[in-house]
Amino acid sequence: MQSQASCETQAANASSVNATTSSKQHTTRRPEQFVAVLDFGAQYGQLIARRVRDLHVYSELVPCDISADELKAMHPSALILSGGPASVYAPDAPSLDPAIFDLGLPIFGFCYGQQIMATTLGGSVSHTEKGEYGPAELVRTGQSQVFGNTPEHQTVWMSHRDAVSCVPEGFVVTATTPTCPVAAMECPERRLFATQFHPEVHHSEYGQELLHNFLFDVCGLKATWTMDTIIEDAIAAIRAQVGDKDVILALSGGVDSSVVAALVHRAIGDKLHCVFVNHGLLRKGEVEMVEDVFTKQFKIPLVCVDARARYMRLLSGVTAPEQKRRIIGTEFWKIFFEKAQKIGSVHFLAQGTIYPDIIESGARKTGGKASTIKSHHNLIPFPDGVHFDLIEPLDHFFKDEVRALGCALGLPDKMVYRQPFPGPGLAIRIIGSVDEEKLSILRNADAIVREELDAYNEALFKKTHTRSSEHACWQYFAVLPDIKSVGVMGDERTYQRPIIIRAVESQDAMTADWAKLPFDVITRMSSRIVGEVEGVNRVLYDVTPKPPATIEWE
Known about the structure:
Layout: H1 8-14, E1 23-25, E2 34-39, H2 45-54, E3 58-63, H3 68-74, E4 78-81, E5 107-110, H4 112-120, E6 124-140, E7 153-166, E8 172-176, E9 184-187, E10 192-195, H5 207-218, H6 227-242, E11 246-250, H7 255-268, E12 272-278, H8 286-297, E13 302-306, H9 308-315, H10 321-343, E14 346-350, H11 355-360, E15 389-391, H12 399-408, H13 413-416, H14 436-464, E16 475-479, E17 485-489, E18 492-505, E19 513-514, H15 519-532, E20 536-541
Parallel strand pairs: 1-15, 2-3, 2-4, 4-5, 5-10, 11-12, 11-14, 12-13, 14-15, 18-20
Antiparallel strand pairs: 6-7, 6-8, 8-9, 9-10, 16-18, 17-18, 18-19
Helix pairs in contact: 6-7, 7-12, 14-15
């Protein structure tokens, strides 16, 4: 993350910034009881830690090649072995220190975690003739402490070709599927449990019950990790890390940066310097809202930078999405380094990085492997000669957890439940080159989409009294593609642009499904966009889940 960026101008502008050597330090202190998740490279490995945290037990990922002595020094209460993409018999397959099984800790293995447990302890794994992917019907074969009182027949989520063919000595098989004779195994005397399926995903209908039984019945843990303790620990850690030094924060007004601003400001007060950059790629009314909320409501000092003309020059004629992101991210940093230089005593850079940002950027900090899906503006490397210590208190949280933290901090609903908005803004919702005309079209269309679906969600909230209604939209916005189409308006032929509406249901941004909106809601959005936004004659609705698509278009 700290590799050099080729930008001599940035280095020159920031050369006098008074800062310490750049490094990353977690701003969450580890509680006395916590669950370590050994990461074998699973794309959704962090989801396991998140499911544990849902049960109010702290959890974090650690690299799978950690030694037993290093792990013991961390004093975990229990271990979970994640899944992974490799075969246990591949030459470069991830492994673990066998001595970990002698630490006396309760251990729960999922998928690859079951296979590595089996082969390490004397069992065997075979390559099956038929793989098992997606939902599978599981049948329990006996009593099990982790299965507890869950039904004898249940649906689980599988994703494997290899499977355990012979369990280690002392283990018993506790569940099977038609394709997998060892769908679950355990050695209760040693408190070792494993499943070939993935309890952490929602598709395993009793997966959370299995985790609950493991944490509380097997491990004897207590549900003491709450938002109040998270806030207390984060503030204490920020104070300990920062001391009397100054911190600069990129404040977009979005959920992530707002929560970080509230945390850091509560910890160090006016030693926090918030900088808001208007790059001209923001949503309608965004500039006014950010200035009003943070300067008048929260009384947080805010430096506002008007960089609209600067960004339009840099983005002129640029069509490649990753090039857009790099340009926007690089300029984003350049502006911050200029402001930090004027402040003169900035040692720390606070960021609203959350875990999906890290996963999609392929920047796994735990030693696992993940492919890069897209880059993120807050993961752009520092330029040569510029160094900050980083404060990223949300980097192991998912979006819904960040929202819960925001509520606990007392942030207003209009801020906490704002739509997720990428750092590059509307530039990556315009397919092709960016100019003022396209920005105006998209900004006005997007405002209509948000206005209508805000009202739709609010109606559901009043009806269900919960912000997490299964029929509510999690994220919604408009996209402007780089095409035109023929239309008829006022008995005249038009050749104008379409608008694509994207609305999805999700809990954590890792997976998403398109929102099944009522036809009258879609009709109203379409009619308003075509009638109120000049330059648009057609509206489309995106019905693609994630995967295979991403939530954003670029």
